[in-house]
């Protein structure tokens, strides 16, 4: 790893933030076409090494950029992201663009309508330029499938970029774009962010609502964003959040709550000042709940000192999250039944084993097991409510491991503890998903081998803006956000 980093087709636009690029396009300093052509050239230069962008239609994208420039020339009202080129996560529905979820059974699937998060980005002026890779049917936190192959990490192309938003993470880290959309059920935004030195936010349920015709009451999986800065995540949340028709779980606050002055313009405050006075509980391994690799522990164990030096009140009185395992596993299994049982029945031989296993797990759940998981969720909610009555944040590791060998399906052991299945190595994220709390991964350090490590900040449900403010303050004092890979 080096800084400033990659040299393959670098331009003055390559490492701009999304806010900066949007400002330059709106001012007329850069056209939408110029921004898109620059992005496509960057993809051509670096994607052969990482395999992040798996679907392109340059002619269609260029036509969209030209329409954006025509609107600007005509003096029409422009969205906040007018002309900004952006690839989208392959599993998220995009009208007229292939959306296969990495499954050979869906290889020819082309949705007729955009998912809500995509529709809102496009309404704000984003020019779609392609789709980024995912694990098959988004199962697991390592990005590989038989349709498109394996996505690798820009910081070490023999290593995993995480998943399921691994293609998006690799593209952002490699300078293809400054930010992008993804989704997170069990760490699918947070883990790849940790692996690639990015920020990754899993919001509170209802911030970016689940809306008809999908299941509007779904709560375990959430749409969200990754970026090189917290400020850019806040910008995309401002664009994509807010209530929607057909979404009964919508949070009624508008997306503009994310336009906090300190998130819009971080220079208006002293670095790290957003941490002063916060009550923060810190535990790398959640009081022994998680095995953690020594290389990760060596970095995350220091975060308490960083927070305290910035003026936070730090202790180790964390909530008991042991019920999170049962809640997550049962709800995930039920969601997999709802989403994928028909595909498994259609042709089980063409569905990867991890998905078949998760669907089968859901099909075999008993009424007692479902009722037990509901009771566990109540206990977990009580723990969370009690904890946040006296704390502002919980801080723990994002991933229990460093980016691992990309030829593996998943890590089979952590610090001497065997993993029983492909979910267990992700527990640092999955038990937090089970709480319903918003959570964000922030870069905190790199190993001696140059592999990024992130730390996970967790806030009470609904406290997404406060979470971003704290994350930005940590970003300012951690000192690793500006590092870039060499490709």
TrEMBL record:
One GO molecular-function entry: catalytic activity
| PROSITE patterns, alphabetized | AMIDASES (PS00571)
SUPFAM superfamilies named among the record's database cross-references: Amidase signature (AS) enzymes
| Transmembrane stretches, start-end | none
Give the span(s) annotated as Disordered: 79-105
Family matches, as Pfam families: Amidase
- What positions does the domain Amidase occupy? 39-468
PANTHER family, sorted: INDOLEACETAMIDE HYDROLASE (PTHR11895:SF76), TRANSAMIDASE (PTHR11895)
Q: What is the protein's name according to its record? A: Amidase
What organism is recorded for this protein? Agrococcus jejuensis
């Amino acid at each position: 790893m080096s800084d400033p980093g990659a040299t393959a087709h670098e331009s003055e636009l390559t490492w701009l933030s999304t806010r900066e690029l949007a400002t330059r396009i709106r001012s007329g300093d850069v056209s939408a076409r110029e921004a898109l052509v620059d992005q496509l050239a960057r993809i051509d230069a670096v994607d052969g090494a990482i395999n992040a962008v798996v679907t392109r239609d340059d002619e269609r994208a260029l036509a969209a950029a030209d329409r954006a420039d025509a609107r600007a020339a005509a003096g029409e009202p422009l969205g906040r992201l007018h002309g900004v080129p952006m690839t989208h996560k392959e599993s998220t529905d995009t009208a007229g663009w292939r959306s296969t979820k990495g499954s050979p059974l869906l290889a020819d699937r082309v949705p007729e309508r955009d998912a809500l998060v995509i529709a809102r980005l496009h309404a704000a002026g984003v020019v779609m330029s392609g789709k980024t890779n995912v694990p098959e049917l988004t199962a697991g936190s390592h990005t590989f499938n038989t349709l498109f192959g394996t996505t690798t990490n820009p910081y070490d192309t023999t290593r995993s970029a995480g998943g399921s938003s691994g293609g998006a993470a690799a593209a952002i880290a490699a300078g293809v774009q400054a930010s992008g959309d993804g989704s997170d059920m069990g760490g699918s935004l947070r883990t790849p962010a940790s692996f690639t030195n990015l920020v990754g936010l899993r919001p509170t349920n209802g911030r970016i609502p689940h809306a008809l015709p999908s299941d509007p009451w779904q709560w375990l999986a959430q749409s969200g964003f990754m970026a090189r800065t917290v400020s850019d995540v806040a910008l995309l949340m401002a664009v994509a959040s807010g209530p929607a028709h057909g979404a009964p779980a919508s949070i009624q606050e508008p997306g503009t709550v994310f336009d906090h002055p300190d998130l819009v313009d971080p220079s208006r405050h002293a670095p790290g000042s957003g941490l002063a006075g916060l009550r923060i509980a810190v535990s790398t391994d959640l009081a022994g709940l998680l095995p953690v690799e020594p290389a990760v522990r060596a970095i995350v164990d220091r975060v308490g000192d960083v927070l305290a030096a910035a003026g936070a009140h730090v202790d180790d009185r964390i909530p008991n999250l042991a019920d999170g395992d049962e809640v997550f596993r049962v709800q995930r299994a039920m969601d997999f039944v709802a989403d994928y049982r028909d595909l498994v029945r259609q042709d089980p031989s063409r569905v990867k084993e991890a998905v078949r296993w998760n669907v089968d797990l859901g099909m075999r759940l008993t009424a007692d097991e479902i009722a037990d998981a509901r009771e566990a969720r109540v206990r977990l909610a009580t723990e969370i409510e009690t904890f946040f009555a006296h704390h502002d944040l919980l801080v723990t590791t994002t991933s229990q491991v460093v980016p691992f060998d990309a030829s593996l399906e998943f890590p089979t052991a952590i610090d001497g503890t065997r993993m029983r299945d492909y979910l267990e190595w992700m527990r640092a994220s999955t038990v937090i998903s089970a709480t319903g709390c918003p959570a964000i991964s922030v870069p905190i350090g790199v190993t001696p081998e140059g592999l990024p490590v992130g730390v996970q900040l967790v806030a009470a449900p609904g406290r997404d803006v406060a979470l971003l403010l704290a994350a930005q303050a940590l970003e300012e004092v951690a000192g690793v956000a500006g590092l870039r890979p060499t490709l």
